[in-house]
Prior knowledge:
The radius of gyration is 27 Å and the shape is flat. By secondary structure, the protein is mainly alpha-helical. Pfam families: BPD_transp_1 (PF00528). InterPro entries: ABC_transporter_permease, MetI-like, MetI-like_sf. It is found in: Cell membrane.
Amino acid sequence: MPPRERTDNPHPDSQPSRKEKKRRAKRDPFAFAYPGWFYAPAGIIYGILFLFPTIISFYFAFTRWNLSSAEFIGFDNFVTFFTQERLFRGFINTLIFGALTSFAKVVLGLLLAVVLTSGIFARGYLRAVVFFPVLVSTIGVGVTFKILFDPFDGLVNEALAVIGITGPNWLTDPNMAIYSIAIVDIWKGVGLAALIYIAGVVAIPSDYYEAARVDGSNAWHSFWHITLPLVRPATITVVILSLIGGLRTFDLIWTMTSGGPGFASDTIASVIYKQYAAGYYGLSTAGNVILFVLVTAIVLPIYIFLNRKSKEL
Length: 313
């Protein structure tokens, strides 16, 4: 019988130590920097397309500029943004839209994940149905729901009329428009949240639930004390993605209302577009900076808090 090959390292001390690696790096610095060359192309492209425009936009936000000149005006653009009602309304709508859609996607996504990981009939088909809206073009979704929400001929109001309910002016009522768009955004994005949660739920060992049943735990206690804490990494992902997407949303709003009626459903992104189209480039750039700071100021602390809580479990 031939001798078995050894799979372990016969000389565990043969691996170079950290000090040895440093000595080698000093002797041959190019070899030590060799892995960095693989990152260089991506880093250069990232710097040109993202870092440089981001940094320079902070300067242009303090100017009144066009393609040929730039006049430094201090904080005037920011003062204008927060003092003019039609601009500040976009800031408030951004906060409302981001908070509402993110909360709904977390709650509905988790509930759908729990249902779709149970022994429900046609589970695979239902998962596909839930995820399908994610694959549809946002522009297509916006156009479709704009037709469905028509106050006179829309299918939604006609369906409500059948049961004796007078449907609202979904997209033409200034107090209703932003919430109607939020409903559509939730419908389109909840499938991705559910998919992320499904991955988190199926990763939980079944032994935990069996032990809980032996101890007399019911379904609610199992969900509250096992499922909810152990899907916290999925929750972090869903919260971050939903918040970033909600705060930066533009295409759905522009397709359905163009920020109207008036400026009732404007967000920062649509305000930026309108100011740029009108030739107010400095004000538009200031809006970009405000949006960047807003997303960072909201998302980063939430991520740190949730990630810290996750490590404590």
